[in-house]
């Protein structure tokens, strides 16, 4: 084992999941239908999450993995006990909006949904785990999509504010770390999943996406304002799908393209962290002929209620080229990138770049000077369990070890301010991108396959005890 300098005192080690990828129980105790429920596994999945194919309900001939997922709704005590055994300091999870407001526009919440999360948070505290709660992790009630068009509609601000007020009031003292929208920049890449957007023929898709983005950004500012008013102890973060863009060559055209790509990602965080729209975004809208509807009150909210910290997912770096003929692509977190010949890749083509995490941390720190939180990082892989469900996942340990070393360097050599680290899919769950179960990230194996078969039995992988030692040593034993 390599010996490293300890992470800061109070560093929040843990793991992350999302309600729609692990809870299942899609219609239990009054829960309503959400966009994330009606996305099937298979070849139509990408067209649906990007808003190109309409699927507003379950249809014959498709399998919908989120319906049951790993049924954490009925297994959360067992699962949280395992997280506690690993020594988690924090557990990042998300709220299923339709558990609280089944249709989204009701005036009164669903008590059964609130009670479920109250029980879950109390279970976390029983094991010494601080919940880190994402208010919206791609969830949008289907009623709000059918009736109002999802986040394209300004009325969403009222419904989201009601959700936030309900959560902050009910869970005061149980939750103090909140994230407003998961990977908010995904609205540009997977708009149905990110904002409930389906595009009709002839619509100006750029206008719809950026108008919806404005509504989400204002909603995030409203949530931040409310959180601080209801409980001054609350800390609110934004969240982006991060990963630095490298120029494909040192040709200035490639360097410029990398800068443009980075700006598209950081646009949302520029607003949430700095409180105003950057000039480059205004110029882009001007060039595209986009006139967004926004009020002076909106701009005041954005300016006054910036986030307390910046959280992000990091799986890989990306490559940009200004040369149209460069087309050698590799897969990534929803959006593909040009292949980097200097990096290895996972079984799904996601390139592995631990130094890229250090670069990304430094870039975000230099840009904003606000505390950071890595809330997703991990390796999706096919695991081969033995008859007891045990997996020798040294490949996962190697991946995480190198990324934790990069974090250590960023903190102890570069001086960035990092609050915590939650690995993605600490227990096996349904993949957001592909809908697969066989693409596993967890320290805990769940007996379920891509078609929903299996006992749902939980078993520890080799990485379980490894991560337990990492946390116990505060990152010095890897």
Outline the structure in words.
With 478 residues, the chain is of the alpha/beta class. It has a single domain (12-472), classed as TIM Barrel (Alpha-Beta Barrel), CATH 3.20.20. It is built from 15 helices and 16 strands. The chain has an eight-stranded parallel β-barrel, surrounded by five helices. A two-stranded parallel ribbon has the order 6-8. It has a two-stranded antiparallel sheet with strand order 9-10. Helix 9 (205-230) packs across helix 12 (296-304). It is globular and about 60 Å long. It starts with 11 loop residues before the first strand and ends in a 6-residue tail after the last helix.
CATH architectural designation: Alpha-Beta Barrel
Number of strands: 16
Major sheet attributes: 8 strands, parallel, barrel
CATH superfamily membership: Glycosidases
Number of helices: 15
> In the CATH hierarchy, what is the class?
Alpha Beta
Give the low-pLDDT segments.
none
Lateral strand order in the biggest sheet: 1-2-3-4-5-7-13-14
> What value does the Rg take, in angstroms?
21 Å
Number of domains: 1
Separation, N- and C-terminal Cα atoms: 6 Å
């Amino acid at each position: 084992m390599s010996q490293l300098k300890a992470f800061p005192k109070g560093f929040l080690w843990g793991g992350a999941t999302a309600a729609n990828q692990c809870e299942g129980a899609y219609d239990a105790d009054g829960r309503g239908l959400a966009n994330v429920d009606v996305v099937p596994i298979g070849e139509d999945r990408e067209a649906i999450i990007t808003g190109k194919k309409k699927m507003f309900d379950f249809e014959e001939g498709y399998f919908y993995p989120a319906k049951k997922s790993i049924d954490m709704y009925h297994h959360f005590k067992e699962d949280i006990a395992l997280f506690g055994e690993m020594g988690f300091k924090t557990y990042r999870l998300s709220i299923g909006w339709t558990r609280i407001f089944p249709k989204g526009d009701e005036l009164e919440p669903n008590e059964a949904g609130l009670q479920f999360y109250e029980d879950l948070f109390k279970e976390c505290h029983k094991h010494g785990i601080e919940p880190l709660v994402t208010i919206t992790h791609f969830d949008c009630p289907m009623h709000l999509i059918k009736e109002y068009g999802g986040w394209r509609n300004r009325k969403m601000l009222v419904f989201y504010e009601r959700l936030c007020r309900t959560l902050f009031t009910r869970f005061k003292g149980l939750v103090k770390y909140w994230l407003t929208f998961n990977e908010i920049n995904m609205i540009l890449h997977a708009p149905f999943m990110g904002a409930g957007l389906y595009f009709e023929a002839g619509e100006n898709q750029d206008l719809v996406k950026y108008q919806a983005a404005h509504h989400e950004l204002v909603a995030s500012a409203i949530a931040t304002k409310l959180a601080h008013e209801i409980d001054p102890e609350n800390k609110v973060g934004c969240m982006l799908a991060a990963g630095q863009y490298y120029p494909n060559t040192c040709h200035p055209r490639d360097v410029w393209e990398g800068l443009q790509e980075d700006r598209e990602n950081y646009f949302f965080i520029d607003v949430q962290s700095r409180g105003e729209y950057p000039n480059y975004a205004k110029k882009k809208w001007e060039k595209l002929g986009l006139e967004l509807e926004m009020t002076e009150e909106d701009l005041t909210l954005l300016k006054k209620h910036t986030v307390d910290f910046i959280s992000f997912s990091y799986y890989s770096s990306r490559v940009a080229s200004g040369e149209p003929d460069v087309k050698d692509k590799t897969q990534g977190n929803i959006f593909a990138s040009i292949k980097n010949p200097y990096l290895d890749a996972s079984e799904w083509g996601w390139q592995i770049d631990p130094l890229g995490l250090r670069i990304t941390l430094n870039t975000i720190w230099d840009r904003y000077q606000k505390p950071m939180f890595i809330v997703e990082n991990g390796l999706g892989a096919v695991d081969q369990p033995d008859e007891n469900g045990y997996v020798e996942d040294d490949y996962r340990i190697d991946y995480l070890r190198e990324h934790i070393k990069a974090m250590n360097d960023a903190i102890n050599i570069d001086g960035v301010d990092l609050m915590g680290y939650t690995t993605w899919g600490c227990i096996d769950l349904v993949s957001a991108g592909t809908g697969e179960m066989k693409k596993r990230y967890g320290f805990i194996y769940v007996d379920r396959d891509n078609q929903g078969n299996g006992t749902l039995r939980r078993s520890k992988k080799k990485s379980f005890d490894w991560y337990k030692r990492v946390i116990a040593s505060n990152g010095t034993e890897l």
